[in-house]
Amino acid sequence: MREMKVVALSIGHSPQDGGSVMTSRKHSEFSFWTAHIGKVKDELERLGYEAVVCNRSEAGGTTPIYAARRCNAVGADLAVEFHFNGADTGIGGTETLYWYASKNGKKAAELIQAAMCDVLRLPDRGLKPIKCKSDRGYYYFKDTRMPALMLEPAFASSHVTDCDRLEERVDALCVAIARAIDGYFQQV
Q: Is 35 helix (H, G, I), strand (E, B) or coil?
């Protein structure tokens, strides 16, 4: 019998800052993923994993360092932080960030990126390795003790099509992400 793996499902941003707001104005990043993260958790638990929903403020702060601390505190084997993107250039699509030196982080990123692209059918913006202090989420990746990812499934705060697609397909997206995490653990 295999040892039960623990997955930290980290909600990006915090109740205090919220993060970007959808073009539909319905949700911030934090409120959107707070409303939907349970679907990922339920599917992971159905597949035999322990899934722990994490919030930065549970570790005492609102920055990415606190997200890393919270993921570390739950003893996760994989940490996945949930966001959505925004840009003032009109671009859209799906991307996944991972720590540049983490072979297992890259493997998990590849599987989850493919699953998100399959469900959302938005442009595949690929994997984004994080290496420099100026890179998004640098301190989250630097401080986590396990493979870690940041998911940016859509440019929901700046691209209407991306926002609509994310809202319409979020249930299927959550299940696909959980199944991709399962695929990752089957391979490592």
A: helix
Question: CA 188, 64, 114, 179 torsion: positive or negative?
Answer: positive
The pTM of the full predicted model, rounded to 2 decimals, is: 0.96
Conformation bin of residue 139: beta by default, left when phi > 0, alpha when psi is -120 to 50: alpha
Architecture (CATH level 2) of domain 6-187: 3-Layer(aba) Sandwich (3.40)
Given a contact cutoff of 8 angstroms between Cβ atoms, the answer to whether 62 and 15 are in contact is no
pLDDT tens track for 114-165: 999 999 999 999 999 999 999 999 999 999 999 999 999 999 999 999 999 9
Close Cβ partners of 119 (under 8 Å, ≥ 6 residues apart): 169, 172, 173, 176
